[in-house]
Specification:
With about 550 residues, this protein is of the alpha+beta class. The protein is about 25% helix and about 25% strand. Strand 7 and strand 8 form a beta hairpin. Helix 8 packs antiparallel against helix 10 and helix 13 packs antiparallel against helix 14. The protein is globular, with a radius of gyration of 24 Å. One of its GO terms (cellular component) is ATP-binding cassette (ABC) transporter complex. It comes from Bifidobacterium reuteri DSM 23975. GO terms for molecular function: peptide transmembrane transporter activity.
């Protein structure tokens, strides 16, 4: 795994995972690093709920993802070029190099974003889709209406849709797919807990009925919860895929490659511009960088700012750009009663003492400052960076009020997984020392972090990259590992979820987020941004959110 000045750019993540019918991890839902989950110790009896399984799944699946490469792999001999509207000659084959290889293709039960990244929008489609700005967009459904009480959604489907095997795709497939997910508790089923039933009103209309409003429903349906499968097809989902997207899976080699071919029966507007896309799984960052330099690959994403520097310095041959994402590097405090950080003055002092600009600059400058729990691409975001500006004098004053100084320092520990390197811990120790905090940095194995911090809540301060979009719920859950219990926040969050308009939802979430930030139960070090380097001639590769949303139909390479 690559590091940027010693700090891991994309390490452990908290997010969605796979659960079985009883809310426990399914034995068939192996993560892409099963050994990681196996190393975790037994939790306490009052241990985590389903979101612990979620954390394990996504951390295992995403923590090692640090490189995406994109290459032209066909030989000139026997190659057939295709032409774009402008007359440019496009290569007929492109290779995308990714870091993390999925163990199988069963997107219903196998956890981790590696499958979402490659399969959703390329091979499988949902009733609705998510665009590069994290907004809901039409997909299998061309339009929809929500009842005034927020309990009924009516989806109007596109006509003349087919799966890649030629089977017709209609409302029965949509209803069956979502009902099957709920009944068998496939991946993300818990996000549809409010759904009572999904019915095919006619061949082109699907009606979804809820028991309580859920303002996040449509966005949830842009992921695995809304994927549509062929109810009549018989195939091995672990090694094959029959979807309705612009590509099909023509070959899958476990831990090695996935070959995508343009779907000849594709029904929609996103027709593949490149006939063949080969996903190759590469393990070595230096080899990937050398491949970009030599011209063997055309895209690396993400790439650390340090490794991207030679390409950024050669704009005639390369383009380097940072894209927006939802990763939040959260410096979480233990807010439980009796904790050293139960004193709000100490939490506030830490926030004032952290020089975020310095930390971001040390990582290359691509990341964005983030002053609260909601990133810019999520509902309810507002810029809260002004609440706790860097002010060492104010931090010292607050520490003095709490009874501490450089002569009488407060001893605190910072515990985080070793996948982030040591640089962040060293910087934080240095920044907090002048205000009277003696910070001991414990860099541990992830399984140790998972047991001690996440499960047993045995920590003072923790650091983890929470990458999942729409994960604001964790601040309204007092049992979550940072133990933040604010009834006003919980009320506002629940009202936001129950809102029947986006405007009302966003206002409730924004109000709650501001209360949280003011309360200082954590510091948000930065909003991590994915840096992508492309060779000249590559067009249509997505920069924003490309670790979770990576549509390939528009990608072309011109020599």
């Amino acid at each position: 795994m690559s590091q940027d000045n010693g700090a891991q750019d994309n390490g452990a993540h908290a997010g969605s995972g796979a659960t079985g019918a009883n809310g426990t991890e399914s034995t068939t839902a192996a993560t892409t690093d099963a050994s990681l989950a196996a190393r975790a110790k037994n939790p306490k009896k009052n241990g985590p709920k389903w979101w612990l399984i979620s954390l394990i799944a996504v951390i295992a699946a995403i923590a090692v993802v640090v490189g995406v490469t994109f290459a032209f792999s066909a030989n000139d001999e026997g190659q057939t070029d295709t032409s774009g509207a402008s007359g440019a000659k496009y290569a007929d084959s492109v290779t995308v190099g990714l870091k993390l290889a999925p163990t199988n293709l069963d997107i219903r039960t196998t956890a981790g974003s590696a499958l979402d990244q490659v399969l959703i929008g390329n091979v499988y489609e949902g009733i609705v889709a998510r665009d590069s700005k994290n907004q809901v967009a039409p997909a299998i459904a061309s339009s929809w209406e929500e009842s005034k009480d927020g309990l009924t959604y009516t989806f109007h489907l596109n006509k003349n849709m087919t799966f890649s095997n030629g089977d017709k795709l209609d409302a029965e497939d949509v209803a069956w797919s979502i009902n099957e997910l709920i009944a068998k508790q496939y991946h993300d089923a818990e996000a549809l807990a409010a759904v009572i039933k999904v019915e095919a009103k006619d061949a082109d209309t699907v009606v979804m009925t809820l028991k309580t409003p859920n303002s996040n429903l449509l966005w949830t349906l842009t992921g695995r919860a809304g994927l549509v499968f062929d109810k009549d097809a018989k195939y091995d989902l672990k090694t094959q895929a029959i979807g309705s997207g612009p590509y099909t899976v023509s070959k899958f080699v476990e831990n090695s490659s996935i070959t995508l071919k343009a779907n000849e029966k594709y029904w929609g507007n996103n027709k593949a511009k490149t006939p063949t896309v080969v996903i190759n799984y590469l393990a070595d960052d230096n080899a990937a960088v050398n491949a970009l330099k030599s011209g063997d690959v055309q895209v690396l994403a993400p790439i650390t700012e340090t490794l991207a520097e030679p390409f950024a310095s050669d704009p005639d041959k390369y383009t380097v750009k940072a894209g927006n994402g939802t990763d939040k590097y959260v410096l979480a405090f233990n807010n439980a009663s009796g904790s050293k950080l139960a004193d709000k003055r100490i939490r506030q002092a830490i926030r004032y003492a952290i020089n975020h600009k310095e930390i971001i600059a040390s990582r290359g400058g691509a990341d964005k400052a983030l002053g609260g729990p909601i990133p810019s691409l999520d509902p309810g975001y507002e810029d809260l960076t002004g609440l706790y500006p860097y002010d060492q004098a104010k931090a010292k004053s607050l520490m003095a009020e709490a009874g501490y100084s450089t002569d009488k320092p407060l001893e605190l520990s910072l515990t985080y997984a070793n996948i982030y390197g040591t640089e962040l811990g060293d910087q934080l120790r240095s920044q907090l020392k002048p205000i009277g905090i003696d910070l001991k940095v414990n860099v541990v194995e992830f399984s140790t972090w998972l047991q001690d911090v996440y499960t047993n809540h045995d920590f003072d301060i923790s650091l983890v990259d929470h990458n999942e979009s729409h994960d604001f719920y964790s601040w309204a859950d007092p049992t979550y590992y940072f133990g933040y219990d604010n009834k006003d926040v919980q009320k506002l969050y629940n009202e936001g979820v129950a809102a029947t308009s986006d405007k009302e939802r966003d206002a409730k979430f924004a109000e709650a987020a501001k209360l949280i930030s003011e309360d200082a139960p954590a510091d948000w070090l930065f909003n991590y941004r994915v840096t992508t380097a492309t060779a000249k001639g590559v067009e249509g590769f997505p920069f924003d959110l490309n670790q979770t949303v990576m549509p390939l139909y528009d990608v072309t390479y011109t020599k």
